[in-house]
Design goal:
Blueprint lengths: L2 H21 L7 H20 L7 H23 L7 H28 L2
Helix pairs in contact: 1-2, 1-4, 2-3, 2-4, 3-4
């Protein structure tokens, strides 16, 4: 496992923990609760892929794509609004790199699944 993948997994695990903490603030069935539930699932799928797990269903991979794209989009948008000297720039950039790694891993696994059908 490369250093980049190890760092991405650490960022993903921290993000999962943050989403789980945030989820406690919302009632089950609320839009925010569901959004966080879907994000957590997508992050777990991504973490598992980066850890080398290949037995994830195509449905789970497809379901994980939209939340990952959403995280990338929202983080890029927030990053664009930051001042060059902001301390959160590094954290946001690291998150984008981790999410991009997940997106790439999902696309690669879906491609592998297609060739084995």
């Amino acid at each position: 496992m490369t250093e980049e993948v190890t760092k991405a997994i650490q960022v993903i695990e921290a993000t999962i923990r943050n989403c789980q903490k945030s989820q406690l603030k919302f009632g089950e069935g609320s839009a925010q609760f569901t959004l966080l539930k879907n994000r957590i699932h997508a992050l777990e799928v991504g973490r598992d892929l980066l850890n080398g797990r290949t037995d994830i269903t195509a449905e789970a991979l497809v379901r994980a794509q939209a939340p990952i794209e959403s995280i990338i989009h929202k983080t890029e948008k927030a990053l664009a609004n930051q001042k060059k000297t902001s301390p959160v720039i590094k954290r946001m950039t690291t998150l984008i790199v981790a999410m991009t790694s997940i997106r790439t891993a999902i696309m690669a696994q879906l491609s592998v699944n297609e060739t084995h059908q």
